[in-house]
Amino acid sequence: MQDHPKLIPGRLYHIYNRGINSCAIFREEDNYRHFLWLYGKHVAPVVETYAWALLPTLTLTGFKTLSGLGYWRCLAPAIDTI
């Protein structure tokens, strides 16, 4: 299993995703809604989002990870399933 870099609490991050060969990752309007729903469920509880952009071929997000006990409480269910 590949070891992924860990996000450090209290740090700022700029993360982007691109489609392979610049192919569209959002092909229908529902794809945008689904991405935002997943972001709200899995990412938003542990970050403070400052900016985001959803383009047909890429996503851009700028956020700061929460620090303190709240960060670890939010991650606990995810860590238990790994």
How would you spell out the order of helices and strands? Answer: EHEEH
C-alpha termini separation: 11 Å
Tell me the overall shape. Answer: globular
Give the low-confidence spans: 78-82
Radius of gyration from CA coordinates: 14 Å
Tally of helical runs: 2
Give the proportion of residues in helices: 25-40%
Order of strands across the main sheet: 1-3-2
Beta-strand content bin: 25-35%
* Overall pLDDT score: 83
Number of domains: 1
How many strands? 3
Tell me about the largest β-sheet.
3 strands, antiparallel
Task: Supply the helix-strand structural class.
Answer: alpha+beta
Please characterize this protein's 3D structure:
By secondary structure, this protein is of the alpha+beta class. The protein has one domain. The chain is 33% helix and 29% strand. The chain has two helices and three strands; from the N terminus they run E-H-E-E-H. The chain has helices spanning 29-43, 69-80, and strands at residues 12-18, 47-55, 58-65. Strands 1-3-2 form a three-stranded antiparallel beta sheet, with no helix packed on it.
